[in-house]
Structure formats: structure tokens, C-alpha cells
């Protein structure tokens, strides 16, 4: 009887322990059944972070050195012996027949009729100086001539260009004679032509021509 009681007590204690253990164990997680033909959701993958690249700074070019352009040759300025050509011609003109002493003379600007460029203003000034204190003509002043040219719409440095214009402006300033001059021919050795005209009729009462030398 004692042996049976001990056996029953041990058995009851063993059952008690097995019940405690079974209550503490967690049931395994249920396994999801994969159904054929059903697309399973895919967890989104985290994008790999990209590191921005720093653009490389191009090397700054140095200052651009400008090559010096070769200097353009300065056009050769020609100088002429206007006085040497004009003095003999003016002397002959003052002795021409049919010239009334004391008359008013308009000296037109020297016209450039050559094949190049020359300083016609210098030639005109030399001509006026050659006629200064000539004892036969009273010259129309440069100021009077400039005003008359302005009335025609010309600048003071412009030549009248034609004999008819020279005669017309001479009438406006009250001159009786016009001295029309022009440089002609080759620019390296031009010729000077002069014509003394009567304003009233336009008649040429004297003409002359002479070579002009370069200095």
C-alpha cells in the first residue's frame, strides 16, 4: 500500500510539471500558404543613396595677348613749289591787254584736276599772296568769298568747281574779273593753268600754264 501511494504521488507530480511546460511554450508561427497563380506582394527595396558629384572647375585661361598689328605706312605728303610756278604767271597776267587798273578781282580756289590728292588750300593761299599789293587789282577778301559761298550752300574751303559758278559769285560780290585756276595732269608733276575772265561777258582775256615742281 505504501508503494502504491508513492507511485501515484510521483505520477501526479510528473503530470503537473508537463502541464506547466506545455503552457509556457508558444505555438509556432503559422506558415503562409503560397497559392499558385497568385502574385505575392514584394516589399519595396530602399534606393541606394547617390552622392552628388562636384563638377570640376575648368582652368581659367590666362589673359589673351593681342599681337601688335604692324603700323600702316603713312601716306606720303607731297609738297610743291607753288610760288615758283605762280609768280611768273601772275607777272604776265598783270601785263595783259584789256585789263582796267583798279578793278575788283575774285580769286577762285585752285581746283584739283590731277589724278591724285594734293593740298589745294595751300596752292590757293600762295596765289593770293602772289597777288597781294599787285598795284592793279583790288582783291575780294577771303571773308567776302566765304560769305558768298555760304549763300550758295558751299563751305569756305570748297572750290566753285566751274567757270559759270565762279562768274556768278563774282557778280554777287561786285567783282569785274575772275581768276580761275586748276592743277591738272599727273600728281607727281602737275601743271598749273590760269584763266583771267571778264565777269560781264565771260570772255577769257588772258590764260597761262606752267609746270609745278615738287619740293
TrEMBL record:
UniProtKB keywords: Cell outer membrane, Cell shape, Lipoprotein, Membrane, Palmitate, Peptidoglycan synthesis, Signal
Signal sequence extent: 1-23
Membrane topology: Lipid-anchor
InterPro entries, sorted: LpoB
Locations listed in the record: Cell outer membrane
Coiled-coil zones: none
Pfam families: LpoB (PF13036)
Record region (Disordered): 27-77
Major subcellular location class: membrane
Function: Regulator of peptidoglycan synthesis that is essential for the function of penicillin-binding protein 1B (PBP1b).
Family statement: Belongs to the LpoB family.
Subunit structure: Interacts with PBP1b.
Protein name: Penicillin-binding protein activator LpoB
Lineage: Bacteria, Pseudomonadati, Pseudomonadota, Gammaproteobacteria, Enterobacterales
